[in-house]
Amino acid sequence: MGCWLGAAPLVHCQRGLPVTFPLLQREQYGKGGVGRWYWDYRDKRTMSYIGDEKNILDVGCGEGITLEKILKKFPGRNVVGVDYSREKVQICKQHRLPAHSGDACGLEFADCSFDCCLFLEVVEHLLDPEKALKEIHRVLRKGGLLLLIFPNDFLFKFARLGFLKFQEAFSPSGHVRQWTPSEMRKALEKVGFEIQEVVCLPFRFWWLSLHCLIVARKGV
What is the model's pTM? Predict the structure, then answer.
């Protein structure tokens, strides 16, 4: 089953293992409102770190919302998405997006084949995050850019309750672990990344923010 547990609002057990059914991302995004505004804000801040990188990989691309934005913002570049869920990959293909089924712990790409990798809200779902980070390090060229985001689950639940989004607030997240900025920094440095910036979104302090964005590069 690879190193993924999965993300989900609905969970049942099959043979003692959790089986999950994720909320449809495009359905949620299509509702608009503050949720869509924040998703766009998160993506805009993340993509602002992409410079002249030509070959871009989105690991855990989901239904391709961010992948689609990257293609529009950076036309003419080689952009590829990978997701463990075949259903999500199929949705990407329905929107004519370059996505493929794959496992973050076993990326089917050659060494040093990408200039930039996005790893957005994926690491918290993984049973073996170190293996996935090593794989991303492998497929990035020397000096390649990693943009990694993980959520603050407590603040997310609080915010959803505040906006009366009860289904989302009380749905199982499928998250294996709540990371902190310092823990993620150590995990990245352990596999050979050099941290350039740690940004809490949308506020300066982690305990007030919904996400942490880490900007790192593969050591040269």
Answer: 0.83
